[in-house]
Amino acid sequence: MPSTSFREVQGKAPVMSSIAEPLRQSxxxxxxxxxxxxxxxxxxxxxxxxxxxxxEFYRRVVAAIEPLGEPFEIVLVNDGSRDRSIEIxxxxxxxxxxxxxxxxxxxxxxxxxxxAGTDYARGQAVAxxxxxxxxxxxxxxxxIERWREGYQVxxxxxxxREGETAFKLATASVFYRIIRRITNVNIxxxxxxxxxxxxxxxxxxxxxxxxxxxxxxxxxxVGFKQVGVxxxxxxxxxxxxxxxxxxxxxxxxxxITAFSYLPLQLATYLGFxxxxxxxxxxxxAIILRLATGINALEGQATTxxxxxxxxxxxxxxxxxxxxxxxxxxxxxxxxxxxIVSEALGFEGEAPQK
Length: 353
Ligand code: UDP
Ligand code: MG
Fold this sequence. Notes:
alpha/beta, Spore Coat Polysaccharide Biosynthesis Protein SpsA, Chain A, 15% strand, elongated, binds uridine-5'-diphosphate, binds magnesium ion
């Protein structure tokens, strides 16, 4: 939970402000400059090798949010980029102190970058958006409108998707339908991490410190008043996707294992089914042999097929156990979720993790 900041303490003691005036004047510019209130909106964006898109991203976010006339901050999380992203982020921060930077010590992955961004964000409403401009920042004001109506989680629903491969579209569609069916959280179909969350939701998410984070699932799991806003997901403007097939598979496994025990129970179901089928088979084989003299299960091939079949099923089940066991191991190690090597523009103490 974020601890009380300098600003909050000041806010609680207005009487002090006149006495403290000379002191305030001697404070470094950074603290003087920051308005004495928390930003209304935080825009959180994970960044991994997006040097071509960052300036444009910044420009479009400001163009979309500034007209609302309320204080806001842009929290950019550099997830161990190997290009010039961090230099560009520094330039943006120099020019506009509303741009705040979290620099990870290495690449921790998209979901953890989002987590760090929402941990540090101070806004009353926090928007999470990809920095590759696939999610248009212009949709955020529409989300804010719903927030003002009292909704607490406003998620973007991809009504249309441009520039995605047929393979990605097909696998995503199958995955979201499977996960909806087998988990006990109703993750809406065709949603990603693009969403606006109320402070209460962000605080609830911050209290959940699991390592294999499937944020779009967690933000549904917490409950609250939720609503979708349809939008057109654009094609990536530059650079390439950082989600190759291997990462997508791992992400899918994170989503399923985090919300469902069904894969573990598969062993039980399979066991009972195979036991029932073999019991029938055994009885049949005996009857056939005694009544007609036919040897129904003849030869080595039959034995081999049965052994290999059952052996492979057992291996698969072990593998599924392994998926859960490895994740449990990651949890019990209690390592921090991410390591921030540099935090720029944030006031007060860093949130405790
Ligand atoms: N990203 C990140 N860390 C990673 C991979 C991606 O912070 O390890 C960021 C990336 O910069 C982008 C967002 O997460 O802003 C989504 O990634 P990407 O566009 O590659 O995924 P896709 O849209 O293709 O699913
Ligand atoms: Mg993208």
